[in-house]
């Protein structure tokens, strides 16, 4: 089925330059489209920079098609690392997960059995084995069962976005940072098809375009309203803290009881916890959220006792109302496309490839069939 097909190097405005927008724009640019990146901040410094940035499918088992899309995302990362070089952004070191009560452990093991039946690699280790082979700095008890997912990874999202945007700019793409989209114009009047024609920015400029990609993350609903579209979104804020340390004592992403920990370069560690997120709407001060995250992390990795809290941010995750991505053309507005999803870090490269292909050829990939924007009634 062909919808809104672009022919040749047409002009596409990519609204929002996190991992999804950067991936779509880079793929469009390298296949000949004229791309304009538009971001009200700086590329990669929004939600992408304040994500746990864990590349995985082990946490995506609620729908098989969603799991398969995330597996494809993992494969797309490996291809991307070969294409542009891993540089400082790609860290395929696996992922650890364990629990501290029998019921939670049973659920983790049940999920591991399901994943194994879907040919997804998982190893069940003991805490003693993990400390000996993988993470000597952990306090995980020796007999605790720990799941190790060797094919998972973490990504430095801001670095990757910078790399993709930089390469697109070298190919002729344009950057408009620090300015927001305040209007999207469509063809009107007798004989007009209502297709995308212009994008007006908060700096007063008006750009002639043939298509727009709404990759605006938490602002995606606002951008959708500019074309009279209702895109329902969840409200799920998350607190992420970066702590500075002279030596990073962990080597991979992990979900320990009550705390998520991963490296973030040579002198930084990222912390997150769903339990701490639950305190955000109580009005708890972000500094206190950071302190609680730090204390939980020190329980798991005592060496982090010498670290210091460097930065904390409460970010709003871009999650469509049903929890699944909204990706592809909106048939009622020719030239308007969406790339809005939680787990954007895992899905960025595969959504970038699939959506760019759809924009340029009009062909809709079956891998996105369950995640089309038209499932949300207007």
> Which parts are unreliable, with pLDDT below 50 for 5 consecutive residues or more?
none
Largest beta sheet: strand ordering: 6-7-5-15-16-17-14-18
| SS elements, strand count | 20
> Based on helices, strands and strand pairing, what is the structural class?
alpha+beta
* Element string (H = helix, E = strand): EHEEHEEHEHEEHEEEEEHEEEEHHEEEH
Task: Report the end-to-end length measured between terminal Cα atoms.
Answer: 21 Å
Mean pLDDT: 95
Which descriptor suits the 3D outline?
globular
Helix count? Answer: 9
Which bin fits the share of residues in helices? Answer: 25-40%
The gyration radius over C-alpha positions equals 21 Å
Strand fraction equals 15-25%
Largest sheet: 8 strands, mixed
Structural overview:
Helices cover 30% and strands 25% of the residues. The strands form four sheets. Strands 6-7-5-15-16-17-14-18 form an eight-stranded mixed β-sheet, sandwiched between helices. Strands 9-2-1-13-20-19 form a six-stranded mixed β-sheet. By secondary structure, it is of the alpha+beta class. The radius of gyration is 21 Å and the shape is globular. The protein has nine helices and 20 strands.
Give a quick summary of the entry:
This protein has 378 residues and is an alpha+beta fold. The chain has helices spanning 19-30, 64-84, 102-117, 127-133, 157-170, 220-225, 274-277, 286-300, 344-361, and strands at 11-15, 34-39, 54-55, 90-91, 95-97, 123-126, 145-149, 153-155, 174-177, 181-186, 196-201, 206-208, 211-214, 237-244, 253-256, 259-263, 268-272, 308-316, 326-329, 336-340.
């Amino acid at each position: 089925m062909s919808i809104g097909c672009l022919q040749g190097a047409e002009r596409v405005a990519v609204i929002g330059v996190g991992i999804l927008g950067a991936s779509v724009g880079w793929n469009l640019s390298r296949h000949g489209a004229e791309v304009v990146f538009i971001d009200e901040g700086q590329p990669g410094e929004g939600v992408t920079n304040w994500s746990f940035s864990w590349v995985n499918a082990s946490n995506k088992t609620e729908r098989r098609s969603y799991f398969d899309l995330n597996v494809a995302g993992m494969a797309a990362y490996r291809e991307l690392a070969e294409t542009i070089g891993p540089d400082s952004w790609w860290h395929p070191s696996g992922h650890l997960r364990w629990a501290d009560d029998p019921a939670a452990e049973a659920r983790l093991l049940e999920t591991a059995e399901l994943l194994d039946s879907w040919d997804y690699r998982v190893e069940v280790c003991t805490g003693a084995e993990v400390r000996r082979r993988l993470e000597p700095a952990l306090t995980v008890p020796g007999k605790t069962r720990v799941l190790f997912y060797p094919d998972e990874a973490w990504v430095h999202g801001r670095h990757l976005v910078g790399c993709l945007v930089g390469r697109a700019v070298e190919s002729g793409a344009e950057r408009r940072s620090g300015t927001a989209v305040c209007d999207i114009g469509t063809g009107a009047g007798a004989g007009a098809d209502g297709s995308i024609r212009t994008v007006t920015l908060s700096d007063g400029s008006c750009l002639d375009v043939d298509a727009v990609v709404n990759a605006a993350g938490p602002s995606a609903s606002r951008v959708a309203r500019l074309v009279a579209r209702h895109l329902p979104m969840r409200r799920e804020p998350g607190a992420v803290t970066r702590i500075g340390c002279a030596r990073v004592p962990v080597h991979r992403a992990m979900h320990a009881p009550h705390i998520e920990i991963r490296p973030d370069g040579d002198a930084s560690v990222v912390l997150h916890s769903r339990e701490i997120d639950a305190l955000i709407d109580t009005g708890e001060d972000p500094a206190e959220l950071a302190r609680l995250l730090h204390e939980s992390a020190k329980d798991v990795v005592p060496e982090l006792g010498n670290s210091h809290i460097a930065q904390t941010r409460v970010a709003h995750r871009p999650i469509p109302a049903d929890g699944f991505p909204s990706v592809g053309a909106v048939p009622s507005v020719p030239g308007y496309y969406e790339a809005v999803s939680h787990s954007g870090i895992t899905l960025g490269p595969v959504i970038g490839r699939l959506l760019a292909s759809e924009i340029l050829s009009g062909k809709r990939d079956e891998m996105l069939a369950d995640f089309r924007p038209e499932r949300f009634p207007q």
